[in-house]
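B., you asked whether I could sanity-check this one before it goes into the benchmark set. Here's the sequence:
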Amino acid sequence: MAKTKSKKSKSTAADSLQLTADAQKEYKITLQELELLMQTRGREGMEILQNAHGGIQGVGEKLKTNIISGLSGDPDDITKREQAFGRNEIPPKPPKTFFRLMFEAIQDVTLIILIICAVISFGLSFYHPDSDSFEEDSKQKEANVEWIEGAAIIIAVVVVVLVTAFNDWTKERQFRGLQSKIESDQTFNVLRNNAPVQLPIKEIVVGDICQVKYGDLLPADGVVVQSNDLKVDESSLTGESDLMKKHESKDPFLLSGTHIMEGSGKMLVLAVGEHSQTGIIFKLLGATKDESEEKKPEKKKKDTEDTLGNHELQDVVAQTDAEQPDEESGFKVKERSILQAKLTKLAIQIGYAGMTIAILTVLVLFIRFSIEEFAQKHRKWDNRYWNRFVRYFITGITVLVVAVPEGLPLAVTISLAYAVKKMMHDNNLVRHLDACETMGNATAICSDKTGTLTTNRMTVVQVYVGENPYKEERVKSIPLPDKTREIIIEGISVNSGYSSELLPPSERDTLPKQVGNKTECALLGFVLNCGGSYDAIRARYPVESFVHVYTFNSVRKNMSTVIQRDDGTIRMYTKGASEIVLKKCKYILNRNGEPIPFSTVDYDRLLQTVIEPMACDGLRTICVAFKDHIPGKLPDWDNEVSVVDGLTCICICGIEDPVRPEVTAAIAKCKNAGITVRMVTGDNVNTARSIALKCGIITAKDNFLVLEGKEFNRRIRQKQDGKVDQALFDKVWPNLRVLARSSPQDKYVLVSGIIASKINPSREVVAVTGDGTNDGPALKKADVGFAMGIQGTDVAKEASDIILVDDNFNSIVKAVMWGRNVYDSIAKFLQFQLTVNVVAVFCAFIGACIVKESPLRAVQMLWVNLIMDTLASLALATEVPTEDLLTRKPYGRTRPLISRTMMKNILGHAVYQLIVMLFILFAGPSIFDMDDGRPVDGVYKPSQHFTMIFNVFVLMTLFNEINCRKIHGEKNVFRGFFTNPIFYGIWIVTFVVQIVLVQFGSIAFSCVALSLDQWMWCFLFGVTVLLWNQIVNLIPVTRHMPKWGEGEVYEQNIVGDPTSSQDQRAAAANLTKGQILWLRGITRLQTQLRVIKAFQDSIDRLQPHEFITHDKLRAATAPRSSSFYGDDHLIITTTKPRSITTM
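And here's what the prediction gave me:
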């Protein structure tokens, strides 16, 4: 069979190779030649390109590609290219099989000990060397059923393994589905038949012409065929953070996985998928399907492959712990989410308590039995005593199993997976699972303005042109001289991205659809109002004809395009932030369209009478200017400062971006929920203040600060060395609500400083929104980074935790609600689980001390712990969030997971349930008229007495599950009960199964069928738990009550103030290293939490547009901030900083 399979796979591979060879005959260049060309690159690559292939044009001809218009888009042609050069995808490593997941689950130390004990118990049950033993009279009766207990424990262990494996398998399926959603959303601009088309990345083929622009992450290898000031960050491949300038005549090679940081251009695709440079590296790492299959027989290689390419983190963790013991205690530990840190600490605390009681239980049983048998009865050692000792040891191990909340990882996983799935419907595409619960703890949100708080549907509503201002409807019919009109139409049409355009409205809309940059779309709308056609101008001046381009970036805050006009004049058009561009102007067009001198006095007058009033109305002001050069005396285009100077101002446009109608209510909800919203924008201070007032971020009566980036830096930096001072920072940020004219570094410093601040004892948890490439560092630094799904660049999306599909602030509020719901769901389960654990553990301990046996058999305790807790985790983790979640303050970074209220509930119900069970244990036989089931001469027999104890315990636990739906002291625990069918469905099923176990599970579960009267008493004891909950709620919460699971706080560094990472690692190592190592020996909790982290990483690793984003392959996510935006290069408005109050 195996041989047949092998032959089939070989024949399939041979057929595939033959198809590839046949397809390559269609083209005059082979796959191997293209790979060699992209591997060589540099000067040698240029020589090969020119000499062997006839330059870029020659390569295009060999690939049958029209470099100007692109491929025709013919399906047959595309299929041939895919066969010849491959598809643009790297096949993911196949998922682990179900049996592999089972094997990993069964490696838990606790389960292994249970299996060994069960096997020993199973074997000893058949070992009877003679008839004289301490089990005299009933030995023959019990001999036939003694094996049941060992077998039942093994069955229970098998159930745990199956549940764990199925959980991991289901989780992987869910995230592969999520990954396919992400992949389908990733598109790229490609020229097909001379028209730009948005294609899924997988559909890009060798020979395609791709349009690349600022912010793109390249999906394939290729060469530049046309460029405008194109600069690329190749640090993900080379580790070099300096930007590499690309030009068709110098260094035209572009590599997949690298970022376009400046400029725009066109690229001829030469290698895709596994044949690109990224794909080749992945093949070397064994991260692709083919490689893993080839290396399967080789164990050593397979282990390496697992470590590097596995979609789960378990193997990586094992190797990391062995080889780099302080890795986890250094940077890794800082990356743990708030909930993970709290769960880890809580699990350690519970583990210590459980281990202590388990050891005490075994010691008490051993010592008491030894004293009675050997000291009092003077009996000699008999091999049959092993059976009793094994049973005691099993009881102790079972107490430990019950003490450790085994169902907690499942509850965490179900809560997060359920939330992720539901959040997709609320336009939140979650890339990192941790972000769900972290968002619920958020205390601050630093939001962009454009598109998030506003609609991002820009419209020119005010214009200053020809020495006259025009507002509202007059903008559509401005009387302009022909010369001015021509310059406006040509200047805006040429000096804007050609991917920005206005399309006819859809059936639902009445306004044209804006595609591309919204600010440019607004200006194009103004061109149409002036009676012009931007399409006609662009047809006259194609991108290939541009003399030079200075693309927009966050530093220069303007954009310039140089063209050669029909009359031979070299003209440069510039547009950008009005204060910045106007400063570069020496002339301005008058009402006749003629240039007149423009002085600094005129600048100040326009600033006060035109720009500031527009900004106060909440408008974004854009200045449009131009400059003519004499053809024979062209400047040095690389000297941007001198080139973009001495301009002639054409007009100043006031562009309105209306506030989203739902934002004001959403921000009010945030305030009510204790979350501070701050607006960080590149607009000037007046526009920012106006929008903040409209949104409700500030009010006219507030004393909050509205600062510009320049003033912000002056206040927080030391005068001597310009470094950020945390003490100075702490004086500014609590009152700061709006940061205007800010750079990406300002946003990064703001986020870092708030996270590091210790003013608030519970520490701040910060969420950030971003859309630009340079927002990447801030998105990475934040506890939760939101990238814009519509306007966001690929780099911003890569750095984010959650993608806002609709770019809407309201979606952030929904994420907060879901995050709090996840946190509460886990807390509900903990309250339920720990109550069960406390009762079961102390019941076993007291029973062992007094009656020599635990009232609950090992199989019964496993049923309660493993089966019911698994079902309870599913029931309590799927509660639907309500608006009530937004009426309380956030928990913050350090608040304990188990609050004092929860601890009161846990202890209150545990005491009540223990009293009831001990009452039945000691007084039950006489009150309920039944035989005493306590062991006689060490012999345990199933009885109605102990069955009733077991039944009452389960029913009290079931009714307490209803109480645990509310964890904040609410009195009505049934509120919303029937809105969650999963909860009441599981509750009913569990109740029915319990009836079956008691009435018909006599052998396996050591039960005896109960009468109707006894059942009624059991039910009554169960229902009284609901009444007892009301009494517990009346008990006031005091500070003396204990609290468990406080969050760990790790120091954060502010940019510009690096501290020794070695000291941080050592401190963190001393904090938790030994505890975590100990914990791994008794519970799967850490392992399963790492699996959660693994799927977070798998989303990063599998994305096709993020080929080389794996930490092993890149030096940095984005270029270092120092190479981008040092203080010396900040260009900030000179407008005086203002706040709501006088500063």
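One thing to flag: The chain is about 50% helix and 15% strand. Otherwise nothing jumped out at me.
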